[in-house]
Write a structure and sequence with these properties.
transmembrane; cell membrane; transmembrane helix; mainly alpha; EmrE-like
């Protein structure tokens, strides 16, 4: 049970800590420091395997660069950038809609067929995201009054959806920890100029080096970056894919609880409505997928 609960807890905590970092560490700099710490922790366990697979790494270098740009350099940077103007709960709720964006990205870009139940689920989840964007007030849509952070997070979910489809459609043959280390290293190379431009032109104060800063960087470098990944892999190995995916939906719940405990932020009515719509939409979409898998197994067994 611990390996199922830990990843959404760590991801929920990432939104809280990212909010705490506002005014302490600039967002793109935080993303860079996060992955430097994560790579330094992972490298002692992965460098031998990386050397053993250097031919495969060279063969798939372009693909690894693209996936590193979409995930390490872009998605996480957009998440921290979002937290400068949006609340942890809003960003977590928008992030919770990622399975539906993956579904829609597959349909639009890769012509992956989508069933009627999945389309209904997608529509409900998108309605939930729209509820967040307009803060429960439809008049904000008419006047185009959106919080920049919500739009940054929305862009991040699209980046992650595209990243997921690229991983699904191309198998590199690399062990998971080798691919992760390579993406971290390449992502850091992309994140370096982003952080440099931010510090030079972004108007942010320099990093406030203090114990609080060290704690923030240590948390984001260890828990959501590495331990969540390790626990997720073990959860899938022990329980299969369906149950861990269901537990992913706990992330906004943990974010809500941690926001109340650590930041003193209370949920609004539109948060409850948005959460219900997003989770119902994901459940319907996953139900369609489960039914499709069951039909495939039945057809295989009868044949």
């Amino acid at each position: 049970m611990t390996v199922l609960v830990a990843p959404p807890l760590f991801w929920g905590g990432n939104a809280i800590v990212g909010r705490m970092a506002v005014g302490v560490v600039p967002p793109l700099t935080l993303n860079l420091l996060r992955w430097i710490v994560a790579l330094l922790i992972l490298l002692p366990f992965a460098w031998r395997a990386c050397l053993a697979h250097k031919a495969l790494l060279r063969q798939h270098l372009g693909f690894l660069c693209l996936t590193a740009l979409l995930s390490v350099a872009s998605y996480n940077a957009l998440q921290y950038l979002a937290l400068t103007t949006s609340s942890p709960l809003n960003t977590s709720l928008i992030g919770a809609s990622t399975p539906v964006w993956i579904l829609l990205t597959g349909f639009v870009l890769f012509r992956v067929p989508v069933g009627g139940l999945s389309m209904l689920g997608a529509a409900l989840s998108l309605l939930g995201v729209g509820t967040i964007l307009v803060r429960g007030a439809p008049g904000n849509l008419a006047s185009l009054q959106f919080v920049p952070g919500d739009l940054y997070m929305l862009a991040g979910t699209f980046m992650w959806s595209l990243y997921t489809w690229l991983l699904l459609r191309r198998q590199t043959g690399l062990p998971g920890h080798v691919a992760l280390a390579a993406q971290m290293f390449l992502g850091i190379l992309f994140a370096l100029p982003m952080a440099a431009l931010e510090l030079r032109y972004g108007g942010y104060a320099p990093v406030a080096w203090e114990w609080r800063t060290a704690g923030i960087i240590a948390y984001v470098g260890l828990f959501p970056s590495l331990l969540a990944y390790v626990c997720w892999q073990r959860a899938v190995a022990q329980a299969g894919a369906q149950l861990p995916v269901f537990f992913m939906n706990l992330a906004p719940i943990f974010t809500l609880l941690l926001s109340m405990l650590l930041l003193g932020e209370s949920p609004q009515g539109y948060h409850v409505v948005a959460l219900a719509l997003i989770l119902l939409g994901i459940w319907l979409a996953q139900r369609q997928s489960a039914q499709g898998a069951a039909h495939a197994v039945s057809a295989r067994d009868s044949g």
